[in-house]
Amino acid sequence: xxxxxxxxxxxxxxxxxxxxxxxxxxxxxxxxxxxxxxxxxxxxxxxxxxxxxxxxxxxxxxxxxxxxxxxxxxxxxxxxxxxxxxxxxxxxxxxxxxxxxxxxxxxxxxxxxxxxxxxxxxxxxxxxxxxxxxxxxxxxxxxxxxxxxxxxxxxxxxxxxxxxxxxxxxxxxxxxxxxxxxxxxxxxxxxxxxxxxxxxxxxxxxxxxxxxxxxxxxxxxxxxxxxxxxxxxxxxxxxxxxxxxxxxxxxxxxxxxxxxxxxxxxxxxxxxxxxxxxxxxxxxxxxxxxxxxxxxxxxxxxxxxxxxxxxxxxxxxxxxxxxxxxxxxxxxxxxxxxxxxxxxxxxxxxxxxxxxxxxxxxxxxxxxxxxxx
Length: 373
Ligand code: CXF
Ligand code: ZN
Description:
373 residues; alpha/beta; Quinone Oxidoreductase, Chain A, domain 1; Rossmann fold; 2 domains; 12 helices; globular; binds zinc ion
């Protein structure tokens, strides 16, 4: 029997998203049917809408879904109907990086996440009797029902039974990316200074994680004073407005240099300035999406002489099945209060939610798509 659903269809930057009727394909053995309760809005959704990221359109986007499992394929063992799950990116499970539990760098990331169809080329969604691009990050969660895969579906641990899915959903992208950059990719050491450039979801998650790691001082840099105030609430010991001599102020605060800098802006000038602040053996992590034409320039002597490193980071090196429960654990202990970033919208307000993300009025918009109970 076909499963019918409502999904927000994206046709490009000239048109608003529209919620329309769609039909799900039959489940494959390693797939799950999930009834979506909520989904976060991430800048990567807009990058596809604007075709900076070439997922084919029209398509159903959304990659921070959370919901309740309705049905599972014959080979699925990690979740069963009725389970509460968080959805994240998909990966192949067989390549050299998946083998070492580094799936964000899956050799086959593209076919498993960004082609609009399954890795074998088959569609997961139909619209008016025709194939509709979906399977975005193995989910396409701007929809009431989705197909996900065993590898990108994480069961919510029982200890978190009281936490609403509408709060947990952004763990699957922005939050794990920022926290993972600090805790997993750069492995920030207690007592060393860190600078975080850009105070959006990723930067704020990095600041909370830097506090968990014991970094000191924790310096936030942004152009928006309200964001800087929030960064201080979440763990930044210092916050400087980039328009107001932030680099000189950081040099004054940490004359020996910073152990770590993390760029979430993707802007060349910001990355080069941040890199110039590093102490010997300092690490510059880059998570911000940049212009594909951009190249960075570093002084080679300072790079080699001080043993400095520049590290590209995808998804915070998150291994989903271990890292998402770890982050939920910090949240339950009160150390990862990411609920402060979230603003809620009803599903039909999806275009308002996208606007709120783009104009910066809400750090992490989350769409309420279905009831939890
Ligand atoms: C992604 C990039 C690839 C790994 C998971 C997170 N970012 C999405 O916005
Ligand atoms: Zn994302």
